[in-house]
């Protein structure tokens, strides 16, 4: 089939806003970038395509943040705006802590999180555009000077001196034709759902999978036994109750294989296929566990996308860096979540821990426990993310990436991708953008010692 082209007539468009720093993408990563820069005194604009902030946590319904401590739970390694947000939610009973859990640190009421993120932007005088799509970069004299956006007011431009790509998919970097890649084994997406009548709130939750035992039905066994009847792919299911509710459960039990959410057609397929699988799970429970009076409460406005593009940056974080806890002089973020690889080529997932243990988990089958390395005298208890992983290669010196599209290989991505880790990259990007702006330097040329010192002064832990 021959692709058809049409030519759009050139026209002048209004400038909607002029700022020092423009952040594209309103996940917690993007919000935290905007807030940190604004607190330092920058004029910041934040653009989000959805109707609220929070990304996968809110629009995707994923209500879990992982621990802020190292693997031994004897040292706090994450603070900053992640800790501040947890404290804000705790004051209204919208967060529950699972202490000393390698799987879950905090369970959130993500509807309340939406409101807290609104308040953070308002309190810090960030200019916000919701329901606003990024369309294209505006290049003049070889420099990125603005982004074209579109919303209910039509098409317009936002000018800024520094740009932060926190879109998740690296949309700005990709449309600047900066080098990027899609892993051949990118992790598949999951459509979550909030379901009432799922188990009894307050029961002991399994550390890995939450409440799998319904009345007269183990959902893991049932999904394997009846997968062909309901056309359910094998994958992995887990969940947690929404804090302070009696029976509302967030269940992440679907798996959409081989669909790239950075592609328009494939994203459309993913959304519809994810919802079909949610209905299939509901039908399975209704048929084989009829004593469970379940009801579908809500579906996400955006499928839970784990991985799409990775931007080629000044450094690629490797699985060896992460699993051996390599130190970096320019580290700006820390994490302790194990490498968690959801496979495309087989069901289930593989967990690689910093102590050398490896576990392949396939629901309905015994866990396969092995080692990815021999035992060593002292195991690392956390890993580090260097600033260079956020700096795209290419001709544009005023753009920085934050979030899951930063430069890391598949093994590193398995651990680093989780939200408490990515939140810190947003804070680093916001502070770095401010320093580059006020010092009239390229983002690649700022003093990373000064960056770390400024992040620490703003509440981040720097090790």
From TrEMBL:
Q: Is-annotated flag, keyword DNA repair? A: no
Q: Enumerate the InterPro entries for this protein.
A: FAD/NAD-bd_sf, HdrA-like
Alphabetically ordered keywords of this record = 4Fe-4S, Iron, Iron-sulfur, Metal-binding, Oxidoreductase
Any single GO molecular-function term of the entry would be: oxidoreductase activity
The superkingdom of the source organism is Bacteria
What protein name does the entry list? FAD-dependent oxidoreductase
């Amino acid at each position: 089939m021959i692709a058809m082209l049409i030519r759009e007539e050139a026209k002048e468009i209004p400038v909607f806003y002029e700022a020092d720093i423009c952040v594209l993408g309103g996940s917690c990563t993007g919000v935290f970038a905007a807030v940190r820069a604004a607190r330092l005194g920058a004029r910041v604009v934040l653009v989000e395509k959805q109707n609220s902030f929070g990304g996968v946590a809110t629009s995707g319904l994923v209500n879990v943040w992982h621990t802020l401590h190292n693997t031994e739970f004897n040292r706090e390694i994450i603070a900053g705006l992640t800790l501040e947000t947890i404290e804000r939610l705790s004051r209204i009973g919208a967060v529950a802590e699972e202490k000393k859990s390698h799987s879950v640190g905090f369970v959130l009421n993500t509807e309340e999180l939406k409101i807290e993120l609104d308040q953070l932007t308002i309190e810090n005088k960030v200019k916000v555009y919701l329901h606003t799509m990024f369309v294209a970069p505006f290049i003049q004299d070889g420099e990125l000077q603005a982004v074209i956006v579109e919303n209910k007011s039509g098409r317009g431009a936002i000018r800024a001196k520094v740009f932060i790509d926190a879109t998740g998919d690296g949309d700005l970097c990709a449309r600047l034709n900066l080098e990027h890649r899609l892993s051949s084994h990118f992790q598949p997406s999951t459509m979550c759902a909030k379901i009432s009548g799922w188990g009894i709130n307050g029961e002991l939750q399994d550390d890995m999978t939450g409440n799998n035992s319904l009345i007269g039905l183990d959902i893991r066994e049932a999904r394997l036994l009846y997968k062909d009847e309901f056309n359910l792919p094998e994958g992995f299911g887990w969940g947690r109750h929404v804090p302070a509710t009696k029976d509302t459960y967030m269940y992440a039990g679907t798996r959409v294989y081989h669909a790239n959410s950075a592609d328009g057609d494939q994203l459309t397929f993913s959304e519809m296929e994810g919802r079909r699988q949610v209905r299939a799970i509901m039908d399975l429970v209704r048929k084989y566990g009829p004593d469970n009076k379940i009801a579908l409460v809500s579906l996400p406005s955006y499928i839970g996308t784990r991985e799409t593009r990775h931007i080629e940056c000044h450094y690629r974080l490797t699985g060896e860096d992460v699993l051996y806890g390599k130190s970096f002089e320019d580290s700006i973020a820390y994490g302790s979540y194990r490498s968690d690889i959801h496979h495309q080529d087989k069901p289930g997932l593989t967990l690689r821990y910093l102590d050398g243990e490896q576990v392949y988990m396939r629901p309905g089958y015994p866990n396969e426990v092995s080692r990815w390395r021999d035992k060593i005298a002292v195991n690392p208890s956390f890993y580090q993310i260097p600033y260079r992983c956020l700096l795209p290669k290419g001709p544009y010196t005023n753009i920085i990436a934050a979030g899951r599209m930063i430069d890391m290989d598949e093994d590193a991505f398995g651990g680093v991708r989780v939200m408490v880790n990515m939140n810190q990259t947003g804070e680093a990007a916001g502070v770095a953008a401010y320093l580059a702006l006020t010092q009239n330097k390229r983002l690649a040329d700022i003093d990373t010692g000064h960056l770390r010192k400024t992040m620490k002064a703003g509440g981040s832990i720097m090790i």
